[in-house]
Amino acid sequence: MKNLSIVVNAVLLIAVVILYILYFSGRKAPETAAVQEGTSNNAGATKIVYINTDTLMNNYLLAVELNEAFLKKQEERRTELNVKAKSLDQEAGEFERKVQNNGFLSEARMMDARDKLLIKQENLKRLQQEIIDKTMREQSELNRQLFDELTKFLQEYNKEKGFNIVLSTQLGGNVLYAQEGFDVTRDVVNRLNENYKKNNRNK
Q1: Closest Cα partner for 119 from 90, 88, 95?
Q2: Would you say residue 181 has pLDDT above 90?
Q3: Number of domains in the chain
Q4: Which of 20, 25, 76, 108 has the fewest beta carbons closer than 10 A?
Q5: Can you say how many angstroms the Cα of residue 97 is from the centroid of all Cα atoms in its chain?
Q6: Half-sphere exposure of 150 (CA within 13 A, CB side)
Q7: First to last CA, the chain
Q8: For residue 48, which phi and psi values (nearest 5 degrees)?
Q9: With 70 as the cut, is the pLDDT of residue 110 above it?
């Protein structure tokens, strides 16, 4: 279950989803904007930038908040499961001791105790699977929420910047080298956090 960390999966989600924002209306972005973002100054050149998703997920306040809440819920469920598993282990140990010491009055009572123990074991397995399924659904919902927020933001962001393509990368990802200015991660994170703080103040 620890492999279901929201940090890892959110990064993987956004790394897999390449955010293409295409504006081919024929308008040319101001040359100063192209210089500022490090894109090509050639007339009609495709303007491409990228976002480092590792940095984004570690610094975007909404992602951090969602991750912390998710991990807290995960820990509560893990604790609940561990308590039930420990209790069942104790019951199983007690059952074994009674069998070895002939502690049951009859074979029928022993079989009844064994059947009840097996049912509890099956219930514990079912609970574990339910927790995994619920966790995956919640994780998928959180990833969708983050994706929706990012794409909505990038659509507005791109009206100002006029990029043709916005790519995502991460440490060891596809972008191994880029000239200074092609990485817009810091600007995106700052603006996302400004929007997040503004929305929270208005609540």
Answers
A1: 88
A2: no
A3: 1
A4: 25
A5: 45
A6: 31
A7: 34
A8: -120, 135
A9: yes
Indicate the pTM of the whole model. Answer: 0.66
Higher-pLDDT residue of 31, 142: 142
Structural tokens at position 140? 């998928």
Q: What φ, ψ does residue 166 adopt, rounded to 5°?
A: -120, 115
Amino acid at the residue 14:
I
Quick one: DSSP state of residue 3?
Answer: G
**Are 182 and 40 contacting, i.e. CB atoms less than 8 angstroms apart?**
no
Q: How far apart are CA 69 and CA 71, in angstroms?
A: 6
Report the C-alpha gap between 68 and 71 in whole angstroms: 5
- Structural domain including 36 reads 2-201
Rounded-to-integer distance, Cα 155 and Cα 20, Å: 10
Band (156; pLDDT cuts 50, 70, 90):
very high
- Contact (Cβ atoms closer than 8 angstroms) between residue 67 and residue 6: yes
- Which tokens in the block code for residue 11? 């990064």
pLDDT tens digits for range 1-45: 443 344 434 433 343 333 333 333 333 333 333 334 444 444 467
Nearest Cα to Cα of residue 27 among 196, 162, 165: 162
Q: Is the pLDDT of residue 140 over 60?
A: yes
CA gap 201, 179 in Å, rounded: 37
| Helical pair 6-16 and 61-100, crossing angle rounded to 10 deg | 130
